[in-house]
Specification:
The protein has 433 residues and is mostly beta strands. The protein is built from five helices and 28 strands. It starts with a strand and ends in a 15-residue tail after the last strand. This is UPF0183 protein CG7083 isoform X2.
Length: 433
């Protein structure tokens, strides 16, 4: 049984780890993975068809805990303990819920102090005690209903009849705007805090990515980021320091590292596995492999040419649940403006307006505006153990110097921006302004 400490308006955890309000989904998953054998039977709940309108939820049924994430920002906004019998809970070192201690109204008041009168829901027979950043919910027998109209002080119970907490929620702010937080499919209206300083971990985090383009070609990316810095609050420019960098096609690996820092991982593209069967394979040294810089907190991969060590491709990830790479990257908040190709219809050149594409655009809208008519390439990933991909195939559409990877629900999983072979410069364009 987990023995955890509650910090109202902030966290639930212990000395070794804690779930902090505002932390990213991937950081919560990393905590759970580090506790294999202690936290078991974890479920991830999301909507296939409406991933932006239904909360993303991590459910731990064997521990009675549910983590509710904002579906757009993918950061933790509510921690819910829905089965009090499966976990021990403390506040400021004082235990108020365990197999030996029942979390009655008197016990909660003794541990947390006096509060303003609670709220009673006569339809659901549920009584709520609300503190700042913390709420307790008590199921109440109908015969006690009249006493709740006048607040906590008027309650009268027979011996042993005091109700006990059935559910506890930790949230940010003074009031929990509960729409239906007890249901995994419901949308919880609690406010979302800033990313906590404890979750920065000396990494750059992305605010916005502007794709720099000429009329029909990509030139590079302008990345608006933030990281640790002195001050009082992120909104005041204190706790987080804003950083803006431009990375272009042709930039060297050294310049990219100077602009964005060292990558979280370097990945080398796989060699041709059939090369060993060629007669000249033993006489020729293996060719160098192109390599990626993976920036997971930016939602970005950068591909370098093995010979020149210059940027030749960018991959922007949207991190939708149900995709093969979900949880590897934070969502890249990009903005891509594409000028559609001119259409020659009956000898008349038709000009269309520019199309703005973001991480939240649906492909059916984008393809209609760009008039993408070609058939897609079907992409079916599989793991190294030859198991099938449980999420199914995605579909890749090419347009100008862009490849759109589209999921079956019509959301864009990733965008690849590449530089055609004939347009690559002979020297690096080293700009990190």
């Amino acid at each position: 049984m987990l023995d955890l400490e509650i910090v109202p308006e902030r966290s639930l955890g212990c000395d070794a780890w804690e779930f902090v309000l505002g932390m990213h989904f991937s950081q919560s998953v990393a905590i759970i993975q580090s506790q294999v054998g202690t936290i078991r039977g974890v479920q991830v709940l999301y909507s296939d068809q409406n991933p932006l309108s239904v909360d993303l939820v991590i459910n731990m049924p064997q521990d009675g805990i549910r983590l509710i994430f904002d579906p757009v920002a993918q950061r933790l906004k509510v921690i819910e303990i829905y089965n009090m019998k499966l976990v021990k809970l403390r506040y400021s070192g004082m235990c108020f819920n365990s197999p030996e201690i029942s979390p009655s109204i008197e016990q909660v008041e003794h541990c947390f102090g006096a509060t303003h009168p609670g709220l009673y829901d006569s339809q659901r027979h549920l009584f709520a005690l609300n503190f700042r950043g913390l709420s307790f919910y008590f199921p109440v027998d109908s015969k006690f209903e009249p006493g709740y109209a006048h607040g906590l002080g008027s309650l009268q119970f027979p011996n042993g009849g005091s109700p006990v907490v059935s559910r506890t929620t930790i949230y940010y702010g003074s009031q929990h705007q509960q729409a239906n937080s007890s249901s995994p499919g419901g949308v919880c209206g609690a406010p979302l805090p800033e990313l906590p300083l404890s979750c920065y971990r000396h990494q750059l985090h992305l605010r916005r990515c502007d794709v720099l383009r000429s009329a029909t070609a990509t030139q590079g990316l302008r990345l608006h980021m933030f990281t640790e810095g002195p001050g009082r609050s992120l909104s005041e420019g204190g706790a987080g320091r804003s950083v803006c960098r431009v990375v272009r096609f042709g930039s060297s690996a050294q310049r990219v590292c100077a602009a964005l820092g060292a990558p979280a991982r370097t990945y080398y593209k796989a060699d041709d596995k059939m090369r060993i069967h060629r007669p000249t394979a033993r006489r020729r040294p293996p060719p160098a492999s192109d390599y990626f810089f993976n920036y997971f907190t930016l939602g970005l991969d950068i591909l370098f040419d093995a010979r020149t060590h210059q940027v030749k491709k960018f991959v922007l990830h949207t991190n939708y649940p149900g995709h093969y790479n979900f949880n590897m990257y934070h969502r890249c908040e990009f903005e891509l403006t594409v000028q559609p190709d001119k259409c020659d219809t009956n000898s008349l050149v038709e000009s269309r307006g520019a199309v703005c594409i973001t991480a939240y655009s649906k492909w059916e809208v984008v393809s209609r505006a760009l008039r993408v008519a070609e058939r897609p390439v079907v992409l079916n990933r599989a793991s190294s153990t030859n198991t099938t991909n449980p999420f199914g195939s995605t579909f890749c559409y090419g347009y100008q110097d862009i490849i759109f990877e589209v999921m079956s629900n019509n959301y864009i999983a990733s965008i690849t921006l590449y530089q055609p072979e004939g347009s690559r410069p002979r020297y690096a364009v080293n700009s990190i302004a």
